[in-house]
Amino acid sequence: MENNKWAVITGASSGIGKEFAYQLGKKGYNVALVARSRDKLEAIAADIQKQFGRETRVIPLDLTHRDFARELADRTVDMAVTMVINNAGFGTSGSFLEIEDDREIEMITLNCSAVTQVARLFLKRMAKNGEGNMIIVASTASVQPCPWFATYAATKAFDRFLAEALWYEMKPKGVNVLALNPPGTATQFFAEAGLSDSPKRLATVEQVVRTAFKALGKRPSVIVGVNNRFMAFTERFTPEKLLIAITSRIMKKMIGTS
Ligand SMILES: NC(=O)c1ccc[n+]([C@@H]2O[C@H](COP(=O)([O-])OP(=O)(O)OC[C@H]3O[C@@H](n4cnc5c(N)ncnc54)[C@H](OP(=O)(O)O)[C@@H]3O)[C@@H](O)[C@H]2O)c1
Questions:
Q1: Per-domain residue ranges of the chain
Q2: CB of 185 shorter than 6 A to ligand 1
Q3: Which ligand 1 atom is the nearest neighbour of the CA of 62?
Q4: Global pTM?
């Protein structure tokens, strides 16, 4: 299908981003892989090249560093980028008062500031070319406040609102933007967030990516999984205090304090 078009994927070294990289390689995109772990990215790039015969580029970057956007711009300047998966992110969990200050700030920097900078860099280019697609990875945690996961859920509400608003702004420019809201998904995420328990039924990365491609260009936002879509719908009619109390109970179990 596309053969000189490039996809840029942030957080491509594992989990959801890695699956996007493989699926985009399979669809015929050349892929630029961004994350901190150079070794993992190189192994994935070599495998995508071997399996699908696509061009690949490894861009090892820490997206919390001040100058990352300039470096990312330089390293992708020669590419016709028509797909961006704005995905790198992590979560903190536990008592708001006890989470380390630096870790909390690092998360806000990655989940909000870096996501915005990646969006600004590539949406400007795509708008100029009159075509393109961007998927911003938010979360089902974005649809209600989450005690014990408070800042993470707030960063994901930021991502969802950003993507949904940009869906509207970018549509007349020929560019699709989608907020992707995965539920608990089988990746490194839970270990990274320090959660001792994860939801019983985790989505797979394949399901998350499949849902995203189905929704891209059709709507501003998608929640992965029929049950999760139904729950998000019913939450709109649930009194706020009750909703927060229910979410708190679920989260307490996940951080291992109930
Ligand atoms: N898994 C879930 O249950 C779930 C649910 C909803 C939403 N999400 C969202 O999905 C996205 C992907 O998470 P995942 O589940 O796939 O987790 P994951 O397997 O831990 O992947 C996170 C990715 O982000 C990269 N990353 C972390 N810090 C970075 C930094 N400072 N600079 C550049 N890259 C960085 C990691 O690579 P390096 O360590 O190599 O840098 C890795 O590639 C996140 O935005 C997360 O919030 C996940």
A1: 6-255
A2: yes
A3: 32
A4: 0.97
